[in-house]
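Lab channel / #folding
Pinned by the channel admin:
"Please post every new chain as: sequence first, then the structure tokens as a reply. Keep commentary short and put observations after the output so the thread stays searchable."

First post following the new format, from NK:
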Amino acid sequence: MNKRIKILFTIPNFITAGSGREMLNIIERLDKTLFESYICVQQAGGALFDEAKRKGYEVLVQDFEVKNATGMIATLRGARKLATTFKNYKFDIWQSFNWSSDYSEALVAKLSGAKHVYVKKNMNWDRAAWKAKSFLANQIVARNTTMFRAFFAPPYLRTKTHYIPGAVDIGVFKQNKNTEIRAEYNIPEDAYLVCCVAQLVRVKDQPTLIKAIADTDAYLILAGAARDDEYVAELYLLIESLQLKNRVIMTGAVNNVNCLLNASDAFVLPTTNTGGHEEGSPVALIEAMAAKLPCIASNVAGNRDLIQTNETGLLFAPNNIAELTACIEKYQNEPDYAKQMAANAYELVLNEHTLDIEAAAFEKLYKKMMRVKQ
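Reply from TO:
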């Protein structure tokens, strides 16, 4: 080809949108001789925003979704107006990392002349907007095998859907025994420490984990940003009622997750499936696997792509306190078994979930979209 393929990467912002780092990782690994990358956010700010500009990427601050439109005609009119800005750039591909079901972005992309591809991260599917967005998309990236089979089964969707799971930087998340966290929170060096890295929201089901810990002599660190004040208050009350204030610590968001993982003996992700909530491709779980930490996860979509009992870790039925307790005790009582599960999980990450593998999969998709010989 005589000119580079121009790709616009969109994300709502680099402040609260959690996939900003992943998006930049993909951009930075694309073949620069073949692809020319641009970024668009709807709100400026954030460390990644500054990093992207510092690295020389053109970052547009521009709405790419139609706001406050009522009905298809108003949405189409708004999309045409927004598309005029993007037409001038002549983008070939429009890669969306916007997790919203709003289909207006796909309209804007198509009206600007770009081929639209979006990443389906979460397990929401009931809204008609998801079907409209998927119909309009030229290509779709599914984050786990459950959504690939269940959501995109119709032939008109299956032919344009690709399974590309999440990935982590194995150079950052690696085994490096750390004692600073234990000292900071007065956790004995010989205590068995379980950690969970997840936002403090109901779908992550931290209460099941807290109750399971109550039936063991283990310590627990719950690390994650508080997104629901009422829920957080309930967690504190539960910890107090079970007399676990000395063994269960809520740290809030942590800056160095690897330090926490390396201070711990096991990792648990207890996501519930109540109300249809499951995981997409849980990065926190992949990070723990990359740090060679024995992992336990609820048997929900996303988790079971990564953890299979007696192969890469232990699965338990969602909300089942007794099963989770048994998993924790198995690791605690059988350290050689736990070590083997951790080693197997690390090999899975190494073979399927590195940043280079993920970026290569996206690059392969973009080449296919533009009919570039592979």
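NK: The mean pLDDT is 95.
TO: also worth noting, The domain at 180-352 is CATH 3.40.50.2000 (Rossmann fold).
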